[in-house]
Amino acid sequence: MNRTQEEILRRYPKAVSHLRRQVDDGRLGFILGAGVSMAYNIPTWGPLIHAVAQDPSVNAGASFRESNSLPLPILAEVLFQRFSDQARPVIEESTKNLHDIERLLQSKWRKLIHEVLYKNAPTSVEDLDEVDSGLRHFLEVIRKSVLTVTYNFDDILERLLLHHRTSEEKEESLTFQSVVDARLPFRRDRTIILHPNGLLPHNLLETNNDTLVLNEGSFADQMIDVMAGQFSTMLHYLTKNTFLLIGLSLEDETLRHLLRQSARLSPGNYHYYVRFIPADSKVSQEDLTAEAQSNFNVYNLITLHLTDGEIKALGDILSMLPNRLRACAEEAGVDLHYTYYLTGVPGVGKTTTFAFFNSLVTHDEWTEPRLPIMSLPYTSLSPEQEKEIDNWIMDQLYKKNLRMQDEKRERVTGIHLIDRCPPDAITFTRPPDWPDKAKQILCAVSPGNSNRLLHDGHVIMLEVDPREVVVRAAMRAKKSGVDYVKRLMEDLRTIYPENRATIIPATGMTPTEVAKWVARIIFLDGYREAGLHKVVQQVADGSISSPHSL
Length: 550
Hints:
It is a single chain. Helix content is 50%, strand content 11%. It has helices at 3-11, 13-24, 45-54, 61-67, 72-92, 98-118, 125-130, 134-143, 156-163, 167-172, 216-227, 232-240, 253-265, 285-299, 308-319, 322-332, 350-354, 383-410, 424-427, 434-445, 466-475, 482-495, 511-523, 532-540, and strands at residues 28-32, 148-150, 176-179, 191-194, 242-246, 271-276, 301-306, 337-343, 361-363, 414-419, 458-463, 501-505. Helix 5 packs across helix 6 and helix 11 runs parallel beside helix 13 (253-265). The protein is α/β, with parallel strands linked by helices. The N and C termini lie far apart (59 Å).
């Protein structure tokens, strides 16, 4: 591990944990911009348009200098019209068919863009592979991506993927499929590379699609397509997976619209935006923080401010073998395994909030259907019913705790969200019986001579007005009352005071707003384990007791 990789692990441990787990689970995608091709002398949009303007077939001259302040899509439209004015008379000498004339004009325009695009780029794939670019450091994880969206016209990525195939893969297939229309079916056995703005491969024989989103008209049409739902496939991937955005600046209106739609449809699903920062940048930390907060609030983006070397280091970290990553994390003094428990009284909105975070490693409250009698307040249960419920819950606690311990031992990374926390069971017990219930929990998680501990984690507790909880409980066929709910809340506060839990006062919040609070705690705030095993031991020995009596 080099110093830069160590710095990334220490500065962004949660991001590394989440991204790497998504790679391993086949749920990480990429959105790439012009920045990833710059190392290969592929011009970005502005220089590309400027170079086109200087071509003799366009010959913008003084008029270009006068129009230089126009937005790039409009400027590209102006240049295309100048190109058409010069090329059309020549084409009309060979055909008078208006449809053919327009098609030939578009073909010549594409060839001009192609010539300018690749003019200074390495020609052979061997020369491409010699370039130490950020893209090259991410190749291995891009091969495993659920979808890679590139807004670039070039096929640098495809050619590098071809070059890095194994001998066996070279005998079998290309291993990837390049598409420009996400509405068409994808090959399930290949890496999918989507070019929503069009594709101009180095070898023009490799494509028969005329799509090229470069000028004002094509961008306007694309935005109309987004509004009409024709980008629904891309939106589907955004709401169901985690994407890493590299080499772009969020100026693309279509992308921003899709990110905002995704944030509204799936408020607990977050993506990562690599914001390139030059090594000698003078941007203040306050400005960087404000930018990151804006991206988080509006687009559900977690911003990683990285230099060129740090971008490469991130690619290397995400590509490491598990044992190597574990060793690097240990050497950096970083734990890449996080557990969050979501708790609160029944009806507080816990399960609704939990459902928004399926991009994390989630664990349901129960592994089996609940007993029907669990809908009753614990104060109305008979001794036999209490025993039946206790036995069932202790078996559930044993299974969940063992699974979490196995997970941490076997898997290096992961942000886990667990519905309900083990000590919660104590609060659903009559106050005099708290010590006995705590002892049952300790025996359940550590039977025989196992000496197992309760799996620790950061507790997030939701609280709302008890009157609202009673209404919600009734809607779910649960019996409750305001006094009963107040008592449960106070008992939960006894088990999880503010120094052991992060408490969200969710009264009056929409489910989306609650999800946003939880996301901020998980992705941006510090990680603080509650010491759950010690808490249960203190209840068992009487150091912690209920403030109520029956």
